[in-house]
Every structure is written in structure tokens, then in C-alpha cells.
Amino acid sequence: MIDLTSPYLWYISRATGSVSLVLLTLVVVLGILIANRVGGKAVGRFEISELHRMVSMSAVIFIALHVVATVIDSYVPTGLISSVVPMTSSYRRIPVAVGAVALDLLIAVWVTSLAQEKMRNVTWRLIHWLSYPMYAAAVLHGFLTGSDSHQRWWLLLTGISCLVFLGALTWRWWQRPSRADGRTALSPLPGSGLSTQSTRRARQVDRPVPGRKRY
Predict the structure, then answer these.
(1) CB neighbours of 178 closer than 8 A, spacing ≥ 6?
(2) What pLDDT is stored for residue 40 in this prediction?
(3) Residue 27 in contact with residue 59, Cβ under 8 Å?
(4) Per-residue model confidence as pLDDT tens digits over 116-141
(5) pLDDT confidence tier of residue 178, bands split at 50, 70 and 90
(6) Domain residues of the chain, as ranges?
């Protein structure tokens, strides 16, 4: 039986924290690809969207494991409340509070993503913008509290992740497409062949059939 102060819990917390950083970076980058409507014949935008969803679920799982391993490890006095309520931890109050903010923002983005079909597109998009400060808070939390935060491999991993994030964010800002009211990231671009085909199909479906009554 694993003791509550076992080093295995510490290893799990370290490993899941590092993996979570990589997964969060992929989630944000894939989200930016979707927002900028990247996709072609080989890999379409719907495939990128599905990959984004799968990686997001993986990130949530690893973050949950990271939180659970940290909370149940009695060597570090961090309770469950402190993981979601900032400034309530007796252990490294500010660094843990930053992690709690990152977790709260992640929960908000994740829950609203599950309820996207029931929300207004503008509201969902505004909440989804919290992904950026969430990522920044997660990186800062790992740097302030991680036992490997000053190791060369961890600094290299964090540096590459941050460079990828900043590069994608810059590209998102400069190459963002125009967006009309009610259009989502998966909507066809104006004047594209897909938009024309969708319009033709809609007209064909709406076209009345001779001899058939419309109700």
C-alpha cells in the first residue's frame, strides 16, 4: 500500500505537471489553428477540431491527476480547497494561488466548451479567450512551485512551449480572418467553394418537389 508521503506521489505530481504543460501548449495551438481556419484537403478543419477536442480531454485528465497527487500527498500541506480557491494554502501561498487561478480558468473554458451548443457564440468566444491567461498562469505556477523548475531539461521544455505559444498567438493576431455575426471558426469562409456548395445544397433541399405538399 502506498503511503500518503510516498515519493511515488511526488513523481506522479512532477510527471503529470510536465505532461500537462505540453498538452496545454498543443491545446492552445490547435485552438488557434481552428480560429484562423487552417485546413486543406489532406487535413481538414473538422479533423483539426476533433484533434483539439481529444487533446483537451487528455490535458484535463493529466491536470486532474496532478491535482489529486498533490492534494493527497501529506508531505505538502495543500488541501483540496486550496487547489480551487486562491490564497487559502499555507504552503507557498502565492504560487499555489496562481495554480488555483489556472485551474479555475481551465474549468470555466472546459465547461463552456461542453455547453457550446446551448450558448451564444459571442459569449462562448469571450469565455474561450480565458485560455490565454490560463496558460500563462499554468506556466507561472510550474515555474514557482515545481521542484524541477530550475533543472535544465525543465527550463528547455518550458522555454520551447512558451515560444510556440507566443509564436502561435502572434500569428493568430496578424492572420486572423474576418468574422461575421453568427459565424463560428468552422464556418466556411466568404466566397469559398465550400460556402458555395453549402448554399447550393441548402437551396436544393429547400426546393419544393412537384406534386408534394409542403407543411
Answers:
(1) 190
(2) 64
(3) yes
(4) 888 888 888 899 999 999 999 999 99
(5) low
(6) 7-177+184-206
Average pLDDT, the chain: 81
Alpha carbons 69 and 4: distance in angstroms, whole number: 9
What does the longest C-alpha to C-alpha distance in the chain come to? 78
Cell 500537462, residue located: 20
What's the confidence (pLDDT) of residue 203? 42
Rounded to the nearest 10 degrees, the angle between the axes of helix 131-145 and helix 93-114 is 150
8 A C-beta contact, residue 143 and residue 120: no
Q: What is the secondary structure of 142-207 as a DSSP string?
A: HHHH-TTTTSHHHHHHHHHHHHHHHHHHHHHHHSPPP--TT--TTSPPTT-HHHHHHHHHHHHHHS
Tell me which residue of 143, 204, 197, 171 sits closest to 38, measured CA to CA: 171
Contact 9, 72 (CB under 8 A): yes
CA 184 to mean position of chain CA atoms: 17
For Cα atoms 45, 170, 148, give the angle at the middle one, nearest 5 degrees. 95
- CA 190 – CA 174 distance, rounded (Å): 19
Residue 196 banded pLDDT, cuts 50, 70, 90 = very low
Closest by Cα among 64, 43, 46, 157 to 110: 64
pLDDT of residue 1: 42
Q: Do the beta carbons of residue 36 and residue 49 sit within 8 Å?
A: no
